[in-house]
Amino acid sequence: MLRNKPVLIPYLLLVAAMAGGLLWYQSARQPELGRVVSTGKMDVGGPFRLTDHTGNPRGDTDFRGRYMLIYFGFTFCPDVCPTTLAVMADALDKLGADAKQVVPVFITIDPERDTTKVLADYMKAFGPNFVGLTGSVAQIKDVEKKFRVYAVKRQLEGSQDKDAGYGVDHSNVLYLVGPDGKTVNFYSEAISPDDLAKDLKQKI
Ligand code: NI
Fold first, then answer.
1. How far is the CA of 108 from the centre of ligand 1 (A)?
2. Mean per-residue pLDDT for 24-48?
3. Torsion sign, CA atoms 41, 45, 51, 54
4. CA 121 to CA 116: how far, in whole Å?
5. 78 CA distance to ligand 1 middle (Å)
6. Rounded mean pLDDT of 165-190?
7. What would the mean pLDDT of 104-114 be, rounded to a whole number?
């Protein structure tokens, strides 16, 4: 991991920001801790303009008025990405009618393989509300930077295929972006559907 120090630093900052967010969350629920925080806005995220899984341009402003629950990953990911997207789908199911206010968004960190067609097939597995987003390598790098995503390609052991035989090591964070486009919370990919639904219910 430490080989990639320069890339890792923004990720560590994000972890620190998440810890701060968690502290804010804990203290908001436990007033005896005596911490008063006047704002829940976090300086992570920002504008983007990408292409959705149906081939249409989609930007952050298209989602104003609703929450975005964003996860960054790649469709070739064998386990963590599909599991996390399933947790998002479960949590939104638990929200019932309130789920209308939250758009689940999957942004690929592997735009070379995750074309709109690949994303279209992949999103079907998680539900009709999911929006898959891809773009050029430069566009994706830009969004990764804004959300302080850690993503590094790694050649798979034993694979001779330089083009397809790679995985992507990546951070696993869910971002909740508010109706005004500001990031309001983070979740670990290890969160349960129940806990995620509970927190979303409080926020929206
Ligand atoms: Ni993954």
1. 10
2. 55
3. negative
4. 9
5. 7
6. 94
7. 97
**Separation between Cα atoms, residue 181 and residue 78, nearest integer Å:** 31
Distance 104 CA to ligand 1 centre (A): 16
Q: Check whether 30 has a pLDDT greater than 70.
A: no
The closest of 33, 20, 109 to 71, measured between CA atoms, is 109
Q: How far is the CA of 155 from the centre of ligand 1 (A)?
A: 15
The pTM (predicted TM-score) of the whole model is: 0.80
Sign of CA dihedral 156, 81, 41, 102: positive
Residue type, 159: S
> How many angstroms separate the alpha carbon of residue 73 from the centre of ligand 1?
5
Number of H helices, E strands in the chain: 5, 9
Which domain covers residue 73, as residue numbers? 5-155+164-203
The total number of structural domains in the chain stands at 1
For ligand 1, the distance from its centroid to the CA atom of residue 166, given in whole angstroms, is 12
In this structure, what CATH number is given to the domain that contains residue 91?
3.40.30.10
SS3 at position 4: helix
Q: What does residue 128 show for φ and ψ, rounded to 5 degrees?
A: -70, -15
Residue with tokens 């639904």: 197
Q: Give the pLDDT score at 12.
A: 55
Please tell me the distance between residue 137's alpha carbon and the centre of ligand 1 in angstroms: 18
Q: Which segment of 46-55, 71-80, 153-162 scores lowest on mean pLDDT?
A: 153-162
